[in-house]
Amino acid sequence: MVSQRLLREGVADETDLKEIIPPDYALDKGPVAVAECFQEIPCNPCSTYCRRGAIVLENINDRPIIDYDRCNGCTLCVSKCPGLAIFVINKNFSEDEATVTLPYEFLPLPKKGDVVITLDRYGSPVGKGKVVRVQNTRYNDKTPLITVTVPKDMIMNVRNIKVEA
Predict the structure, then answer these.
(1) What's the domain range around 86?
(2) Is 74 helix (H, G, I), strand (E, B) or coil?
(3) Number of domains comprising the chain
(4) 10, 79, 136, 146: which sits with the fewest CB atoms below 10 Å from its CB?
(5) What pTM did the predictor assign?
């Protein structure tokens, strides 16, 4: 059951997110995927491409369930998700910062080392982050992945970036 806000505005609220937040033991071990896929629609590239069998769908219309004992945050599912609904979060990037890896289909692409504006699910600015990785290989299916630093308490809030010209 999704929230009224998600149905009305297309943006998940705390009740939706509560269902998909990785458990503490998974966050403590390193990078992990977060599937913000709240609709039951026929879609399965994330589970098809996951080499570790960490994304489970009982049938193609189910929401993906991540097995955090298997997920190592490899990011393969992020670029394969046609809904741009999967992110990889790493709470252990450094002592002070975490990272969020997100799909980014805008131009210009940021470069490693750039400082970008971090955005929440509404597209509202929530801070700044440093780009620590840009993945744009043929295997990414034309969906570049950007890894950006965020304060640790923002790993479940930052879901996009804005590149300043």
Answers:
(1) 4-163
(2) coil
(3) 1
(4) 10
(5) 0.94
